[in-house]
Each structure stands twice: as C-alpha cells, then as structure tokens.
Amino acid sequence: MNFQYWNRRMETLPRDELEDYQLEALRVMVERALRTPFYSRELQKAGITGGASIKSLDDIRRIPFTTKHELREAYPYGMLSIPKEDIVRLHASSGTTGVPTTIYLSGEDIKRWTSFVARSIYATGCDKTDVFQNMITYGLFTGGLGFHYGAEEVGMLVIPSGPGNTAKQFQFMKDFGTTVLHATPSFLLHVESKMREEGVRREELRLKRAFAGAEPYSEDTRKRIEELLAIDVFNSYGLSEMNGPGVAFECQAKNGLHIWEDGYIAEIVNPDTLEPVAEGESGELVLTILCREATPILRYRTRDLTSFYTEPCSCGRTHRRLRRITGRSDDMLIINGVNLFPSQIEEVIMAIKEVGNNYLIQVEKEGALDRLTVKTEVGPDIFMDDARPLNALKEKIRRTLQATISISPRVELHESGTLPVSEGKAKRVIDTRPKDI
Amino acid sequence: MNFQYWNRRMETLPRDELEDYQLEALRVMVERALRTPFYSRELQKAGITGGASIKSLDDIRRIPFTTKHELREAYPYGMLSIPKEDIVRLHASSGTTGVPTTIYLSGEDIKRWTSFVARSIYATGCDKTDVFQNMITYGLFTGGLGFHYGAEEVGMLVIPSGPGNTAKQFQFMKDFGTTVLHATPSFLLHVESKMREEGVRREELRLKRAFAGAEPYSEDTRKRIEELLAIDVFNSYGLSEMNGPGVAFECQAKNGLHIWEDGYIAEIVNPDTLEPVAEGESGELVLTILCREATPILRYRTRDLTSFYTEPCSCGRTHRRLRRITGRSDDMLIINGVNLFPSQIEEVIMAIKEVGNNYLIQVEKEGALDRLTVKTEVGPDIFMDDARPLNALKEKIRRTLQATISISPRVELHESGTLPVSEGKAKRVIDTRPKDI
C-alpha cells in the first residue's frame, strides 16, 4: 500500500525523539496549568511548582488525575490559563447534569487542532480531490466544526450538510459525487437502510470512505457498513475535553487508531487501582493534552476502555495504536450480577446477517430480577408476516447472545425502519431499573 | 464617536480609486465568468469576449442580468469557474422547488469572505474583548459559518450555540458574559419574550450589541429590540448567492448599510424596466461579486428593494450606504388590487407598544374577495381575561393599519408566546389563496 503523510516528519519521528518532544511539551503544559485556578492548587499540593519539577516522562505519574466531575466543578473559568480576551472559541457538552463541560481555545489552539484533524483525514488516503459530506452536528458539539476545519485544511470539497434529512443527503451525494462521509456509525447504518428504502443504489454514488465516531461500535458493525456501502470505514476517536476529533484515527492500514503522541500523552490504567496496566493489556485511557494553551488538561480520565497494540504499524508511523474502544467504564451494565458492555451485544447481533441495521437494549426490573430485552430490526429480505423464519431468527439471536454474554435475553424483532433513530450519538440502552442511592 | 476600521485603507479609499479598483476587479471577474459554461454562452451573446471588452464601469450594463432561475438551471456546475478539486466548500439554499442554489468557494474565497465579515463586525465597534453568541443555524446556510469565521478572525470569543433552546442560551449569556448576539430579528424578539417569561433580567446580562439579519425587518422592530434589551442593534445584509453575510453592514453610526464596494458592485434598477433608477430612488438591488473566484455571478437580481443614501456617512467610509431592505419584490402581496409589503404591516404594529413580539399575516379568499387577517401577540402587561382593553387595542391596530395601508384587516390578539416561532427565517405570511397559473 502507498501510504501518505500530512506531516511526514512528525508522524514518523523515532520514538526517542517523540518522547523527548513529549517531555518538553509536558513541561510547557505544566507551566500553563499552573496559571489556572484549578491546577495551581492541585499541582502545588503534589509538589509540582513548575515545568522543571518534571524530570522525565515517568514523572507524569506525580500529577494527579483529572475527572469530568472536576471539570464541572471548575466551570466556568477554573481551567482557563490565558486572558479571557484571548479566547477565540468555546465548545461545551451539556451532559445530563445541567452544568456543561467547557473547553476554551485560542486562535493558535484552533490552528493546531485543525492540523491534527487534517493529518487524521489525510492518513486514510483522502486528498483535495475528495468530496466530503459532513453529516454530523455543527455548533457546540466538537464533531461538526472540528472535521469541517480539518477537511477544509486538506482542501477537500466540504459539504456542511449536518445530520438528518436523508433525502437531501442522497441528492448531495449524487449531484456532487460525494466520496467521503462522516457520521456516527448508527447514522451510517440508518443512511444505508434509507438508501434501500428509497431505491438509491450504491452504484449511483461514488462513495469510497466513511469516518465513523462519537459512539463506540463493534468491528462487525464496521464490516457491515463496509459491505453494504462497498466502502472503507475508518475509526475516529476524540472527546471534547481533548478538543474533539483528531485525538486518534485509523490510517490506511485500518488496524487500530494511531494516537497523535505529539499532541497527547496517553496512559492506560487499571480503573480500580489507577496503576498502569502491563503493555498490551486493557484498561482506562488517560490523556494529557499537549497541543492547547487555553485549557490545559492533565491526566484526564476518559472512562474509555482500550489497550495499546504492541507491534508497530505497517504504515511506518511511530505513534502507537489504540484498540477500538470497547465502551466507557460508565456504560457497564450489571445484570443479575453479570457485568456486560452494550458493545458485546452489538458485536453478536451485527454479525448475524439477517439482523437489520438498528437495535435497542432494554433493562428493567421484573420482581427481584433484572430483565434484559434486545430489540433488533430485521433485514430488508425478511418478511414480517411469516412467523416461522421469524421465530427461528429470534431463537438464533437468543442462543448466540446467551453463548457469549451468559445471559438469556428476551429478543424482539421489529420491522426495518421502526426503531427510533438518533441523528447524534445513538441512545442504545434504556435502563429503567430504580437507581441505588 | 470614535470610529474604528478593520482595513482603514480600503474602507476609506477615495471614490475615484475605489471605482478604478472595481473596474479592474470587474475585468477579472468577466475573465473568470467566461470560464463557466453559463457565462461563456451568455457573455459571448452580448459581445463580451474578455475582460478587455469592459472599458469603463458603465460597461457593466452590457452584461446581461442573472436571476435565481438561471442559477437553478445551471445546477450543479454551470457557474463553476475553477477545477472541481480546487473547491473547498459549498453552500446551498434549498428553496421550495427542490433544486438547490449552490455556491462554491475556493480556499482563497473563504479567506476573502471571512475578511469582509470581520470588517463588518469590527465596524460596529466590536473587538477581541467581546463575547459573541452566534444564535443562528450552522451548516449549509451561510449565516452560521459566515459569522463564525468572521468573528474568529476579529478574535472575539465565539460561542457556536446555534438557534433554539433559550434556556441554554441564557445560561451561556450569564456564565460567559456574552456581549454580542447574532440572530434573526424574530428570534431576538422571541429571546426577549422568553427572558421575561423565565425571569432573566437584562441587568444580569452584559449584552451590548446584536446583529440582526436574514429576514427584512422594520425600524420599529429594531427600536423595540434595542429598548427591551438596552442594546444597539445593527442591520446585517447578505444573501447566499453573494457568499452570505458581509455584503453590507451598518457601522457605528447605525444609519444605513455600507455595501463593501471593493467586494461588490451594486446597482439599483427599476424592477419593471430594468433601467437604473435616479440616485437616491428606490428599486431592485443588483449585485456583481468581485471577491470570489470559484463562482463568479454577475449582475444578480436580488429581488431586494432598497435605495442608496446620497449623502456621505459620518464614519468617513467611502462605501455607499443602502437603506434598510423594505422587502423582496417577490414578497409583495396584492390584496383586492392594493399592493402591500409585509414590512408595511410590521412597521405599524411594532410601533404600538401594547403589541407583543410576534405576529403573523394571513391572506385568504372569502368569496370573490381577498381577506387580510393580522394576528399579533399582546404585550406581557395585557391580561387576556379583560375584554374591554383588548377590544380597544384591536380597534387601535385596525384603524392604524387602515390609515397606512388602505386596507381594513381583521385583527386577532393572541396571548404572549402562543404564535409559532421559527429558529431560522421567520415565516410571517400565510397566503392560502389559490395561485393563478
């Protein structure tokens, strides 16, 4: 394969030079952090009084972790390290508690963020001849503007379509020869269902690639989208606390996400002990941003579960690769004492080809017990009026799930296009059990 | 007043130099246009074979007009003058016919557009210390991204909130000390109504200015917003065919919109004869874009009705000022033979202080006659359960309207907050009369 690099020098920097770069950048970040109300308190408690307190990269472990809770506590300006008048943009994720998590960017921060997104897009083989349809929300959410700026930097033709309105999306794809899509994986599956419904054939389109992110999804979901649309799907990882998209991205080798280590220091820790896991083992991703001056965030506990690949990538990049995020530690369901991630269910059902493109997981109390129901749509070739094959399919799903997750769920089959569709992050789990206080 | 200039030299260029600049730029635009399928045909029919065919600015009259209909006919690539791979963005307005009007921009085009928006914003007295809440749709619509890029260029803190969700808008305004808003005038009025409803006092906020555009509005609406929010409201004019915002804008003198004549050539013509009107007279605005390479559009009939101020502005800018757009020639209603613009109704009712912030105009057939109904909300101090003052108010509105527009409308009063609100361009007129074919 003919690999291409947006910034060959930085992307292929030898590990020792990359680590020297990180150490230097970390010292700068510590200096910046000490200018914020939050870190000036927290770092000094830990005996860190300046960049010089950090002698080696291992010293990062002297820095206390930062959690989402603390970001909220610091709202609105506790994490700000530059004068307010030098801020050029803010992004905010509202969350469910009402207090937003807010990130500030300087003009320079936007440029650096944009360059990481451009690098990510280019690494998948895209260039200025591509037509990029950005089917994701613009505005306070970082996904829309983040990809928009990065794709413009690459020089692709950007269609800022946002999500929704599939009829119009198809019109753009046809009329402008869209080659690359960006959306949540659930919206990509929805688009594909709608295509069949509206008789749009993939041969009429010129799609080659899609970037899928903003929600965890399984390898089988990727394969399904790739086969149905005859495209390559690239895994995108980012979170608004770390700017948004452009934190880690798959290259043309499509085998794990390169985390851009000149922009971020990545650690993987055991979420219970907070100690580093052994190389290659799974744990919680902890990130320190190196490429932002306005809002320095150190050792941020992402809650995302992943692990490093240990072998180098065939593309020649020296930046390590993360495995597909299997879920957030917050997402874990405990069902009658059994730990379960929604991604485990997705993996099973998306591998069954009679199953359609949408599903929903419901957990409720039934007497003293938890009851798991998996609702899936059926594929377009299955007719809802013939009970026999439907019952066989239900039983197949139930048995396959039980074999994998050790829980026997109730299975419901729904007609294609009838389960609710979200334009942003899909809401896949409805848990109606009373919460413990 | 202490006027400030983003690009002092260009904004105060002596008229003769400005016109020399326009002539040179027009010649370049003609060359570019000749590279498009549409204009290579149309210009050659008119005997224009190159930039050299244009000897003086008056020669612009040799160029045929372009209409929205022709833009649609040319969809998707008939107006494109650069290789497809050099396009970096497209904007599209869908309109009602299904065929979008599409505008392409190169990277250079985006930079120049951004600089005109930055110039417009700066002309109102804003600078990098301001906090700018962009309460308008992002994406294919040009208003969101256009202002976003321009405000970032000025270095303001941009909150890309988009429209909707007033509770969240208020939270941002309070928490980040928003000083400048951008929205449609109807959404600004809606925001003000919601503030009172939710008990947000303007003293808690730090608002100083608002930019209002994307729909025509009256001077009385401006005054109402200014008084209720205790801010300055600046009139913004643009249209997606001419990039979007940044075509014409009010300066600190707040008395007419400077059209940036180094970016656009403006003519005002009689919409029937298509001949130029006398200086200062009202007619249809015709625009030629000088600041875009990808999609050159010459002598575009905007349908917007306006006139030039003849006297120079106190701010010292040499770029002529347009009067507030009174409506689009397409918007004109003919009611029982009487010509009427919705803006005339707005002007009357917004001057009546007991009238609330929202209104709707309905036209229907009643037998052979047209029947005009004006629905307005009542102000917050009027109680709907006391019939006498309500009847008096109704009669006052009816009489004042009749005196101005020579039609006696039916008047309906509605409780504050009950008429439909639009987040984008307000839909103020519902005309249910059968269309003549």
UniProtKB/TrEMBL annotation, chains A, B:
Keyword terms: Ligase, Nucleotide-binding, Phosphopantetheine, Phosphoprotein
Pfam families: AMP-binding, AMP-binding_C_2
Coiled coil segments of this chain: none
AMP-dependent synthetase/ligase domain location: 82-287
Domain AMP-dependent ligase C-terminal, residue spans: 337-433
Catalytic activity: 2-phenylacetate + ATP + CoA = phenylacetyl-CoA + AMP + diphosphate
EC number: 6.2.1.30
Gene Ontology biological process terms in this record: phenylacetate catabolic process
Pathway where it operates: Aromatic compound metabolism; phenylacetate degradation
The keyword Nucleotide-binding appears for this protein: yes
Molecular function GO terms recorded: nucleotide binding; phenylacetate-CoA ligase activity
Role, per record: Catalyzes the activation of phenylacetic acid (PA) to phenylacetyl-CoA (PA-CoA).
Similarity remark: Belongs to the phenylacetyl-CoA ligase family.
PANTHER family the UniProt entry points to: ENZYME, PUTATIVE (JCVI)-RELATED, PHENYLACETATE-COENZYME A LIGASE
Subunit structure: Monomer.
Protein name: Phenylacetate-coenzyme A ligase
Protein source organism: Breznakiella homolactica
